[in-house]
Amino acid sequence: MNDFLTICADVGSVPKGNFGWWSSNGPSGDRPSTLVDYLVSALDDGKPVALGFECPLFLPLHHDEMYLTNGRPGERSRAWSATAGCGALATGLVEVAWVLRETGLRLNSPTQAYLSWDSFVAAGTGLFLWEAFVSGKEKGANHIADAELGARALMNALPNPKAANAVACESEVYSLVGAALLRTGWTTDISVLQQPCLVLRALASG
């Protein structure tokens, strides 16, 4: 399925101007509220949307206590539990939930959210959620540029972004985006708490 919008949000402090979003259709912005406006308009028009957030959206849940804060496979030197990862994770916890809540409250008709790419493609509609990984030399000049790099990571991986998935945990996982979906009323299926999402790593911008 190629006829969908790809949107990515780079989380960060809104008052300090550290939040940015970008859409494959052109628009961008630096406020969560303008992202919600755009999401609601697109989804109410029946446009499928793939929405990524540049923050950890799921964590490994190891059985061995010695590995509880280990980085996820594929994170390399940018582990979720390191300083930058923890900051993005904490900020994303509230910003992801806020965007999902405000979008859900304003939609005129019920819309399905997906963590599974195959389910999203089969439905041909709805909201697909994924994680963007933009760090180090891959980062852009500002937060909107980072969001664009994240979005293009998914766009460049089409038609099969699963083949480009950058993080695959062999352990069980705790899904933070699944928890956000439950908290904001997008689903009542608690199995989403165990479901990872796709992680697409941005390429160096040159």
Task: Please supply descriptive tags for the structure shown above.
single chain, 7-stranded mixed β-sheet, 9 strands, globular
Give a structural overview.
The protein has 206 residues and is of the alpha/beta class. It has one domain. The protein is built from 5 helices and 9 strands, in the order E-E-E-H-E-E-H-E-H-E-H-E-H-E. It has helices spanning 32-44, 83-106, 117-123, 143-157, 176-183; strands at residues 5-10, 20-23, 28-29, 49-53, 58-61, 113-114, 127-133, 172-175, 199-201. It is globular. It starts with a strand and ends in a 5-residue tail after the last strand.
Please summarize the sheet with the most strands: 7 strands, mixed
**Poorly predicted regions:** none
Please work out how many helical segments DSSP would assign.
5
What's the count of strands? 9
Mean pLDDT equals 93
Specify the helix fraction band: 25-40%
Number of domains: 1
Separation of termini?
A: 29 Å
